[in-house]
Amino acid sequence: MELGDVVAVRFGKWGGRPHWEMDLRYLGADRFGRWLGSPAGMPMRRPGRDSWAPAEVAMLVPDEGDYVASFNGLGVDDAVYVDITDRPVLEGGVMRAVDLDLDVVLRHDGQIYVDDEDEFEEHRFEYAYPPHTVAAARASCAAVLASITAGEEPWRSVGHVWTALAGQQPLAPLPQWAAG
Question: Which residue(s) pair with 39 in the sheet?
Answer without folding.
Answer: none
